[in-house]
Amino acid sequence: MPFLRMRSRWRGFTLIELLVVIAIIAILIGLLLPAVQKVREAAARVQCQNNLHQMSIAVQNCADTNGGKMPPGLGGYPIIATSPTARGTSSYGGCLFYLLPYIEQQNLFNACALANGNGYDPERGILPQSQGGYLKELVKTYQCPSDPTWGSGFKSGWAAVGSYVFNGMIFLSDWLGYSYYPATITDGTSNTIFFTETYSMGTATNGSLQPNLWWWDYNGFETKPDTNYYTDCGGFNYWGPAYVPLITPNPQYCNTNTAQEDTWGGLFSVCSCRATSPHTGGINAGMGDGSVRFIAQGISGNTWFFACTPNYGDVLGSDW
Predict the structure, then answer these.
(1) Smallest Cα–Cα separation from 72: which of 207, 231, 190?
(2) Residue 193: C-alpha distances to residues 79, 188, 210, 288, 311 (Å)
(3) Are 30 and 269 in contact (CB under 8 A)?
(4) Mean pLDDT of 152-169
(5) pLDDT at position 205, please?
(6) Per DSSP, what are the bridge partners of residue 23?
């Protein structure tokens, strides 16, 4: 009976053969894993670039709707508040808050309407809020998928955080005056950074993650020295060529190049508003014309600073 004879000749794998197969599979996995990680990071970087593109285009649309007037870093818009504490007399918030209607977040913006109908406010609007009266909603466009910290943004009732910061030399607090698009950007919109990346959370002195910033508040990564009241990013006045981006830092990066600050009920070593990238080898930046550049890690401090100045007449270096 042929069938029985074939069965009698069949034998299983030997132990050595099984070990060889397992070793081959392990080698293949070891070769494929870095490639998979590279593809995943490339996709995350593209998503991050798309976020920055949408934000830069939103600025243009927002300015077009308001006679060229760009949203402020913090304050009333399009009507100026009479003082930093004049809340309830008009809309009041940060730059990214005013961009909500232009990134398909009109419903969230409307939900922050003041009860008296005088405007919109992320802290005093009618939307149910988290502990401390702060807006708690996360906005996907404001989250870099490579940011290793933002997923902890709801710890203990903390308000929503984000992964992007704006150029505080352009988006000023309203009582310092508004910028106009493109009139204020005389160095050229394609040569001027509007937005870049940061980590949404920083490291407290006890090692835990704490919010670096709330996306709807003041979040300027480059701040003119003559500004004040929220425009120094919680005590850190990042200004000039010395403040190049932090590239691919450890999540504990805020223990370096910072000082302690009593901001959230305790002393935290925070890095509020510092331009920071989780990507390998560089940082994404949204330019004024809507384009996005991946700026190499080796960029000089002068070139980075010149790309942040909107109207100083400086020329970008060869490393741009």
Answers:
(1) 231
(2) 25, 10, 27, 6, 12
(3) no
(4) 72
(5) 58
(6) none
What's the Cα-to-Cα distance from 43 to each of 31, 144, 184, rounded to whole Å? 20, 11, 34
Picking from 107-116, 125-134, 167-176, which range would have the lowest pLDDT averaged per residue?
125-134
- Residues 288 and 194: beta-carbon distance below 8 Å: yes
Q: Is residue 290 part of a domain?
A: yes
Q: What residue numbers bound the domain in which 287 lies?
A: 20-61+143-308
For the chain, the domain total comes to 1
Q: What is the mean pLDDT of the chain?
A: 79
In this structure, the strands spanning 276-277 and 246-247 are: parallel
Determine how many CB atoms are found less than 10 A away from the CB of residue 236. Answer: 18
Among left, alpha and beta (phi > 0; psi -120 to 50; other), residue 233 is: left
Cα torsion angle, 70, 75, 78, 80, sign: negative
Tell me which residue of 167, 161, 170 sits closest to 143, measured CA to CA. 161
In this prediction the pTM is 0.82
Distances (CA, A) of 54 to 61, 120, 196, 290: 10, 22, 12, 8
> 104 in a domain, yes or no?
no
213 inside domain: yes
- CB-based contact 63:74 (threshold 8 Å): no
Does residue 209 lie within any of the structural domains?
Answer: yes
Which of 249, 240, 236 is CA-nearest to residue 303? 240
Cα 218 to Cα 7: distance, rounded to the nearest angstrom: 77
Torsion-angle region of 104 (φ positive above 0: left; ψ -120 to 50: alpha; else: beta): left
Which amino acid is it at 214?
A: W
